[in-house]
């Protein structure tokens, strides 16, 4: 029994050690990853739920680590937020996404939008608004076609500060979307308080549309409530025809998900734009 106990302990400590080692490696590599060109963006189409025309894309970051291979943003973004690297990475992503989308606009998709995720940590950067303004000027990107996706946890610490920055961004013409709606603890109070243009229903709700009537009712209620506050609604994580049909029926404005398209490489986006929008 003693031996067995020791064995269990060793397995545990070994796994723990590996997890710590991986974390340290990720932390240390984050600093160099930008310079080494290890990040890239993929783009997931957002379609008009009725006509199914692409109205824009969400830019999603990908990291190919030289030793660890592909690392999910769900793993490294929280680490980059802790270390502060997200400030630089976030600005890189914004610039890259604007450049890419500008090139599609120049190909003929004049009104094509782009949505970029903005981490709460980026609000701690004193020049956040000025930096975003500079990227828009440099890339000659129309601010009205840019949506910044924020989550409700951005304002946990300094609500007044965040509010003032959001207001400044809105004054530039930028649109603000509340991401992952319904998963936080204070969703409702944020809706009226924040200067929002739209909200994205979290995929956990969308994926329950096939389930019981109560869960459908939640989605319907969110859409109705958003519309009464003059907000547009995007459903994320749409995977089935049944979900899309229900969303259409309930007048959801935009849809995004594997049913429509997976996140795509830029080349595939252009092909898709030609096919779907007749570019
Ligand atoms: P998110 O902003 O909620 O992005 C949506 C996630 O859902 C993406 O995961 C997307 O690939 C995935 N998705 C899209 N359609 C479907 C579907 O039909 N079914 C399912 N099951 N999933 C779907 P991804 O790309 O792994 O990104 C994960 C998270 O990482 C994002 O969640 C976002 O919070 C963060 N992230 C990604 N790129 C950036 C970035 O450039 N900056 C920041 N701050 N965060 C980012
Ligand atoms: Ca998002
Ligand atoms: Ca989301
Ligand atoms: Ca999310």
Automatic annotation (TrEMBL):
Keywords: Cell membrane, Membrane, Transmembrane, Transmembrane helix. Its main location: membrane. The keyword Transmembrane helix applies. Residues 23-277 form the EAL domain. It is found in: Cell membrane. This is EAL domain-containing protein. It comes from Paenibacillus xanthanilyticus. The chain holds residues 562 to 840 of 846 of the full protein.
């Amino acid at each position: 029994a003693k031996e067995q106990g020791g064995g269990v302990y060793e397995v545990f400590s070994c796994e723990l050690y590996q997890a710590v080692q991986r974390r340290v490696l990720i932390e240390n590599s984050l600093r160099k990853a930008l310079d080494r060109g290890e990040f890239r963006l993929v783009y997931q189409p957002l379609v008009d739920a009725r006509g199914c025309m692409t109205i824009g894309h969400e830019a999603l970051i990908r990291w190919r680590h030289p030793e660890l291979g592909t690392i999910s943003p769900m793993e490294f973004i929280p680490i980059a937020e802790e270390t502060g690297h997200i400030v630089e990475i976030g600005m890189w992503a914004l610039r890259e996404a604007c450049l890419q989308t500008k090139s599609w606009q120049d190909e003929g998709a004049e009104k094509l939008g782009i949505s970029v995720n903005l981490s709460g940590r980026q609000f701690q950067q004193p020049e956040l608004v000025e930096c975003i303004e500079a990227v828009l000027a440099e890339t000659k990107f129309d601010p009205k076609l840019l949506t910044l996706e924020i989550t409700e946890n951005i304002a946990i610490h300094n609500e007044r500060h965040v509010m003032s920055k959001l207001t400044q961004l809105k004054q530039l013409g930028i649109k603000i979307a509340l991401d992952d709606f319904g998963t936080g603890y204070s969703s409702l109070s944020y809706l009226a308080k924040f200067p929002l243009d739209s909200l994205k229903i979290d995929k956990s709700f969308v994926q329950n549309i096939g389930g019981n009537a109560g869960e459908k009712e939640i989605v319907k209620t969110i859409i109705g409530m958003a519309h009464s506050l003059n907000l547009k609604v995007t459903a994320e994580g749409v995977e089935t025809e049944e979900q899309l049909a229900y969303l259409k029926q309930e007048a959801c404005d935009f849809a995004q998900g594997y049913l429509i398209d997976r996140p795509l490489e830029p080349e595939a986006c252009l092909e898709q734009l030609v096919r779907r929008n007749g570019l």
